[in-house]
Amino acid sequence: MIAEENPGCQSGVSTNPASHGTESVSHYMGHADGAASGAVSIAPEHVDELAVSAVPLDVAKEHGVYTATDRDGLPGWAQWLDDKFGTVIYPVLCYPMVEPDGSITGQVKPAAGSVVDNDGNEMKYVSPAGAESPQFPAVRVVDTPAGVIIAEGVKQALALAAYAPADWSIYRICGITGWVRDGVPTKHLRVVRGHGVVIVPDADASTKRAVYDGAAELGAACAMRRAESVRFARVAGFGNTGIDDLLGACADDDERREMVLDLLAAASDKPAKTPPKGLTATQRKENEASRAAARLAAERRNDPRPVIHVGEDRFQVIHQLDTLLHRWFDGRVLFRHGDALGQIVTEERGPVVNAVTQGAFADLVSQVAITVDGAVRDDGKGCSHPFAWPDKNTLAAVESRFRTYMPLDGVSGVPLVRADGSVVTAAGYDAETRHYVHLTDDLIGLDVPDSPTRQDIGDAVQLLVVDLLGDFAFKDRSDVAHAIAAILTPLVRTLLPTSPGFAVNGLQMGIGKGLLLFVISTVVSGLMPPLAMLPSNEDEMRKSLTAILHSGQTIVFFDETAELDSAVLNGFMTAERWSDRRLGVTERIEMPNTAVVFFAGNQMVILGDAARRIVQIRLHTDEPNPENRTGFRHSDLKGWVVENRARLLRACLVLIRAWFDAGQPVPDHSFRMGSFERWQDMIGGILMVAGIEGFTEGMAEQRADADFEGQHWAAHLAWLSDKYGDGEFTARTAADDLRYDDEAEYPPGLENLVEKSSAARELGKAWSKQTDRWRPNGLRIVRSVAGQGGRMKWRIEQFDETAGGPVESAAATSAPPPAPKMPAEGGRPMPVITDLDEGVA
């Protein structure tokens, strides 16, 4: 929405002679009538911006300010911005200006951050090049002025035009040294002759030596042109606060006029009380000469890198280097990964994410900038100058800005699926999935229908279930469904908070588990599976998993797995984010966990909590020598998979798209996978739409079979139930009965319990950790109330399927006899009688 519809632009200056009229400003805009397509009066966002800077709308219009919305609306000299940077520059705020001799100039302000110079600095304002650049534009000209105000800044001068006394002339300088061209002061300074001059620099004249010196040199130039007096208005504030900021903070127009009068009255003979620390003008000129000579040498060898003088203000050096690194590497090479800066490096197996070392970061800096320091001399062969690295603190400060880079969660070798069901078929960084997608040529632009037909779905199922997996010796249909799930999961992993692990569990050698891992890995990564052995201890497991995530891997393979029983691994598979100490340093890192873990082994034992985190793909056969089987569909399955990878991936994506197109239905689940509900709903829904049956069938039984510890506990509870029925018992009683009962079942890990003097205590501790937990045989152990002497009593409860709870027992409903108490003696605490062997909580 626009404030007004194209009313045209008015004169940029109020002057006594009529020589600077509308015709000149129209000429400046490139349109005889002053109304251009793509030029409007002032857009609402620019009205707000000017208001904050105390520039009223009528004053802005009086001085020809307008908004450009396309190339035709720009001044002719500024249209290169559209050619180079495109439409990101709009809307552009245009400030027409007129020099005292009537020559036309001006500045434009593109959209924030859209234009940068060759050194990587943002160009907030852009002026004409060369002789047409603004030097001393007139804002208000009075025939016999009470004084002359020279304001640094475009909006600052307009704010003063609104609130300064009407009998003062006002001129603007665009930058503290903008009044100098090729080292020569502008001829327009003659207007100050015989008048008192007040120069109004920004507040940083007190903190930046370059600003202080620029203002002081302007004062000296005015004195040379025989100004009656030269004073400096000291704008209070921090950074580059300008007079427009101070006026914008005032309550009303009267307060603004008062502030301007106070500022003029308090003007001093120096830009600041003392010159700020920093390079002198001579040193800055030497640095500029160094930069210019380096630039000349770079141009001679066609080097496009900008030249940065590392000896100048550290903030500026840091900002310039950071801007250049973002421009060249953000979202392509450098990313925010794991609370640090990560670098995509292409290795033999494809791209991985490496931590950016000190040397690697310096190398990246050298690729984007020529860094110099000190004087430069012409050696007769094209200027020699001392190249210089930024100091370590500067490099560390630049690297510390890693949080401004694109976030990266991992590297994928397959097209990923976004939350809306669209498929990433372009190589490179995908902002929505926060993954770097590395696709081979045959996968780029893969054609996947938005609404697959039943024929599309049937063809995909045929290709995956029959052509790809038809020759594997799966135990039953659930294993086929789980094999398809294992291939689909990496494609949708970015949409899932967690994913279970997949265990290819073979009956014996030669059953085909290695071949199945090859098939899965080739389809989902394009590579042979990078097989590794499970680490031997928990500390190594933690380090290994952290290194895998930090490298950006999203698929992890562990081969020759005999037993799964790792608390670290269990935690990893249910963790949405993974936190650990960064390898080699004390700093901790935190990373999103988007990995899918695969295991392979023969007769794999899956213990404890691992059984709840694993989906098994069982390979089983009655043949004694399965490696001798013949009659396969493909004489070389590996070669066929490599050759048909694009078709196989497309088939997977067709099934996924079909689920999205069907409205993302969720099947009914008779078995629920805790911590992986979203995975179960999505993968189960995809398979349901595809007509692939058997998903999660028999998993409860598989868990029970694999949970050897649970089986031991169930047997122990059954022995207790047979021994004591629904009555109460103590740990000492049970320990004695275990000792003399040849048919006794011990808790897991306590097989040698009867040989220990602390048998009752250890048995009670073990029961405490199992209290109230139902076992598959419908039994659990619960605490009863403390009996005589504080002895803890226990009982076994049986689950009642009809009632949906435990069977009521006489022990549970009868009230225990009150425990005898000893009379209390005055001045002494009453003792508690406790049997240390039995009083285990």
Produce the secondary structure layout.
Layout: H1 22-29, E1 39-40, H2 44-52, H3 57-62, E2 66-68, H4 80-85, E3 92-98, E4 104-109, E5 138-140, E6 147-152, H5 154-163, E7 168-173, E8 180-181, E9 184-185, E10 196-200, H6 209-224, E11 229-232, H7 243-248, H8 253-265, H9 281-300, E12 307-309, H10 314-329, E13 334-336, E14 341-347, E15 350-355, H11 358-368, E16 370-372, H12 392-399, E17 410-412, E18 428-430, E19 435-437, H13 454-468, H14 477-492, E20 501-506, H15 513-525, H16 538-550, E21 555-558, E22 563-564, H17 567-573, E23 577-581, E24 588-592, E25 596-602, E26 605-606, E27 614-619, H18 637-643, H19 645-661, H20 677-690, H21 699-706, H22 708-724, H23 731-740, H24 759-770, E28 779-783, E29 794-800, E30 805-806, H25 810-813
Parallel strand pairs: 6-7, 6-10, 10-11, 12-16, 17-19, 20-25, 20-27, 21-25, 22-26
Antiparallel strand pairs: 1-2, 2-3, 3-4, 5-7, 8-9, 13-14, 14-15, 18-19, 23-24, 28-29, 29-30
Helix pairs in contact: 10-12, 13-19, 14-15, 14-20, 15-18, 16-17, 19-20, 23-24
